[in-house]
Amino acid sequence: MTLANSYWLIISSLRGAKRLHDAMLHSILRAPMIFFNTNPTGRIINRFAKDLGDIDRNVANFINMFLGQVWQLISTFVLIGTVSTISLWSIMPLMILFYAAYLYYQVGSVYHFDFVFCSFTCLTLFGREILIF
Questions:
Q1: Residue 66: what are its φ and ψ, rounded to 5°?
Q2: pLDDT tens for residues 67-95?
Q3: 91 with 80: CB under 8 angstroms?
Q4: CA-to-CA distance for 106 and 114, rounded, in angstroms?
Q5: pLDDT digits (tens, 9 = 90+) for 6-19
Q6: Is pTM beyond 0.70 here?
Q7: Are 9 and 64 in contact (CB under 8 A)?
Q8: What contacts 130, CB < 8 A, 6 or more positions away?
Q9: Helix, coil or strand: residue 83
């Protein structure tokens, strides 16, 4: 099982790195000439290497940790359901309540982020301090 998991993580990481590289290369090849005049070739190559290195080092570990947590959560619910089925009926309303709270606060945070992002954009566009409340 561990060998299959490791193989799948490595293959997925390689596919992700290939897709990112192809998308970055496609964007670079379609860039106007002024982009190459203002950005040195070394900086572009370093950016390619950094982004692909981040995928190689981090993505597989994050996916492995995430899947481990999901597996623990599922096994916990199965264990609770096996030992005490009545507990699952009390957990379901709580899960619905937490999901409703998540949706409520998620919408608020997106609105707040858009507001803050817009105010910073407005500050840069006009070149003077504008406080938006």
A1: -65, -45
A2: 889 999 999 888 888 888 888 788 888 88
A3: yes
A4: 12
A5: 888 888 888 888 88
A6: no
A7: yes
A8: 119, 122, 123
A9: helix
Other Cβ atoms closer than 10 A to 60: 19
d(CA 17, CA 20): 5
State how far the Cα of 31 lies from the Cα of 128, in Å rounded to an integer.
31
Task: Say if residues 24 and 53 touch (Cβ distance below 8 Å).
Answer: no
CA distance 48 to 57: 14
CA-derived radius of gyration, the chain: 23
Residues listed for the chain: 133
Euclidean distance between CA atoms 21 and 40, whole angstroms: 19
Name the token pair of 115. Answer: 């507001």
Joined tokens for residue 41: 């070739």
Helix 60-83 and helix 85-126, axial crossing angle in degrees, nearest 10: 150
